[in-house]
Every structure is written in C-alpha cells, then in structure tokens.
Amino acid sequence: MITAPRVSLGLVHWPCWNQHGEVVCTNVTNFDIHDIARSARSFGIERYYIINRVKEQLMFVHRVLDHWRVGEGSEHNPMRKTAIEMVATAETVEEALRDFPVKPLIVATSAQNRPEFERISFGDLRKRMWDEPSRPTLLLFGTGWGLTDDVLRQCDFLLDPIRGSSRDDYRHLSVRSAAAIALDRLLGQ
C-alpha cells in the first residue's frame, strides 16, 4: 500500500499585494471556498485553510460553510458537504501553522518570477513529498497580486510558476485553476 503525502493548503488573503504594490487584505469569494475544497478533497488534502484577518470575511466563510454542512446545501448537494469538511479558517499563516504538531515544509506559489527566493520545481517537490510522506507540507496560494515578501520569507521554497503555451507567457490564472493544476501535478496519479 502506498502512503500518500500529508498535504495542507492555505489560501492567503492577508498579507497580499494589490496591483499598486500596496499590502492589502483581499476579499474571500464564495467560489474559492467550495471549488478549491472540491479539488482539495479529490487529491486527499488534510486541511484547507482560508487565511484572512478581517472578522467579517471569516464570518462570511463560516456562513457559506454552515450552508453546506448543516443548512439547505447539506441536503441539496451531499458531495459538497464532504468536500468542505477539511476547510478551516485562520487570521494569519502563523495561526494556521500552530495546528501542525511538527513544522511542515512550507511551499509558496507565485505566477511571478522571484529569483531572490529559493525555488523548487513541481517534479522535485513531488518527489520530496512522496519520498517523505510522513512530513507534512503546507502549500500557500496567494490572492490579489500575490503573497508579500514577508510571507515568502517564511517559506522553505517558492514553487515554479505554472506556465502554459501562450506566445506572450501569459500567467494570470484564477487561484482556483492554479490550485487544481498544482494539486494534480503534485498528487495526481
């Protein structure tokens, strides 16, 4: 029997950059909550953290989760109910890290080239995760215009950007799409 890697995912809304290079807290979207949870469930993610410091935003997340866990949605779509079981909230990355009994390997994602941070390819990270399945990994996905340098400095690695075949190297996927692609590359069979 193959032991799958222990992977958690963090969708970071604070701190992120906006298009003007300012540090901001982005808004949570309903689609990001359940679409990423569905991908996470498909690939065996242990915990999916929605990280946002704004209390009203976290209340919104809990209202959406309650709808699918115990509200009308739980009867309407039981598959979504199983998908959101691993969703948790945290105000900061540090708060999410407190849930881990041992320090996980922390890997950030970015669509941008950031040569000042230590990089890791999808292939190398996949090998590392599968070779050491008992060591937890936390994958961080940014919102807005990406994770701030303060967050990236907390990470062990920055994952290579997802690149398509566009002639102009267009790299502006929705975070939902980027998460699904990354999880398939790292955990897909």
How many extended strands? 9
Number of domains: 1
What's the order of the H and E elements? Answer: EEEHEHHHEHEEHEHEH
Mean pLDDT metric: 94
CATH architectural arrangement: 3-Layer(aba) Sandwich
Q: Your description of this structure?
A:
The protein is α/β, with parallel strands linked by helices and 189 residues long. The protein has a single domain (7-187), classed as SPOUT methyltransferase, trefoil knot domain (Alpha/beta knot), CATH 3.40.1280. The chain has eight helices and nine strands. The protein has helices spanning 30-42, 55-69, 72-76, 78-83, 93-97, 122-131, 149-153, 175-187; strands at 7-12, 16-17, 23-24, 47-51, 87-90, 105-108, 119-120, 137-142, 157-159. The strands form two sheets. Strands 5-4-1-8-6-9-7 form a seven-stranded parallel β-sheet. The protein has a two-stranded antiparallel ribbon with strand order 2-3. A hairpin with a 5-residue loop joins strand 2 (16-17) and strand 3. The protein is globular and about 45 Å long. The mean pLDDT is 94.
